[in-house]
Amino acid sequence: MTATARFTGDATPYGGGDPYADYRTADFPFTDLVDLADRRLGAGVIAANDEFFAERENLLKPEPAEFDPERFGHKGKIMDGWETRRRRGADADRPHPTDEDHDWALVRLGAPGVVRGIVVDTAHFRGNYPQAVSVQAACVPGSPSPEELLAPGVRWTTLLPRTVVGGHAANGFVVAAELRVTHLRVNQHPDGGIARLRVYGEVTPDPAWLAALGTFDLVALENGGQVEDASDRFYSPATNTIQPGRSRKMDDGWETRRRRDKGNDWIRYRLVEQAEIRAVEIDTAYLKGNSAGWASLSACDGEGAEWVEVLPRTRLQPDTNHRFVLPEAVRATHIRIDIFPDGGISRLRLFGSPTEEGATRLAARHRELGG
Q1: Are 220 and 244 in contact (CB under 8 A)?
Q2: Are 297 and 280 in contact (CB under 8 A)?
Q3: In 122-264, where do the E strands start and end?
Q4: Parallel/antiparallel/unpaired status of strands 72-73 and 226-230
């Protein structure tokens, strides 16, 4: 683990105006990856030892933390994050907490995966953030209860050792552990508040589950699909196109800026593994005056392989789910969608099943990561 940017110490007290004006942040190398702790994937904060001032569930809200300087409740200032009470020592002669005292929250990831980066966001916690944080990870099958996760036999691996953090800041950390993770234990030392937690990485699905499904969406985030690159991310991230479920509003899809040249926009995806694609959905839900005019699909089988068009340039309708049955199964590891000339789509679905070779590699990778 190495920190890509270090923030320490208090932020200045809020003095009015835009509360994010003095927010400390940085560009992190992993934020184009999927957030494994995204609520849309099914993530949740399933337990915490203390949430006296602010609920643990706030940690995984998708939107940035908000700050209302006038909002107080019967327990004090209401914060948009997870905040614990102030820890105290054992007695008047020992009023301070010990070095071992800390608060914790258990997080179930929305999709099991290999963690590549963590952001512990202390936005608006200016003088009441933790002195330090640490993060541990476990890989536990099924749907364990908090009691089962905290049982003595569960193996926890440290992803982020105890590290000093700063207030009102995005504290980002690169993670190097090659380990399949299903749950995290987030610790704050000794107490305080964290606004948001983001856990970026690569989904590593259970091959037995995918085999039982037979035909499934080969590019879905929850099944291990990835966005490798995109021509434009101006209004919204390309990863929105492979999120679960249908889009619920315009910015829940992918929309590009308006082109003023003769080019076109595109997204390149990596499938969960080598597979045979049999059917395609291209959805433009909630994109009404700004949906793509036309789209085409190309496929390649392996890095550096030749790209072959599998769906010719086809007219798209606004706010519509378009379905295509391919004339024959297409073997591929990567797919590229080109939209003409610009605009957006909300979802792309590629239905099929892994090849025998792809399924073998999936199983081997699962074992290698301790699944």
Answers
A1: yes
A2: yes
A3: 132-138, 157-164, 170-174, 180-189, 193-194, 196-203, 216-217, 226-230, 254-255
A4: unpaired
Using alpha carbons only, give the angle 299, 323, 314 rounded to the nearest 5 degrees.
65
Quick check: 198 and 183 in contact, CB under 8 A?
no
CA distances from 8 to 86, 97, 320 (A): 20, 20, 49
| Alpha carbons 142 and 149: distance in angstroms, whole number | 11
333 touches 270 (CB < 8 A): yes
Q: What is the pLDDT of residue 1?
A: 44
Which pLDDT score is estimated for 73?
A: 84
Q: Please give the structure tokens belonging to residue 84.
A: 């614990």
d(CA 123, CA 166): 10
Pairing of strands 254-255, 265-283: unpaired
Contact (Cβ atoms closer than 8 angstroms) between residue 281 and residue 247: no
pLDDT at 212 over 60: yes
**Global pTM value:** 0.89
SS3 252: helix
C-beta separation of 26 from 117 below 8 A = no
| Geometric angle at alpha carbon 359, from 358 and 360, rounded to 5° | 90
Structure tokens at 262: 């003769």
What burial letters (b/e) apply to 9-37, b meaning 16+ CB within 10 Å?
Answer: eebeeeeeeebeeebbbeebebebbbbbb
Pick from 199, 209, 192: nearest CA to 172: 199
Strand partners, 35: 200
Q: Give 170's strand partners.
A: 121
Beta bridge partners of 340: 294
In the chain, the amino acid numbered 207 is P
| pLDDT score at 76 | 81
Report pLDDT for 3: 45
Nearest in space to 215 (alpha carbons), one of 277, 147, 165: 277
CB-based contact 112:207 (threshold 8 Å):
no
Tally DSSP H helices, then E strands, for the chain.
Answer: 3, 22
Pairing label, strands 103-121, 216-217: unpaired
Give pLDDT, residue 74. Answer: 85
pLDDT for 78 equals 83
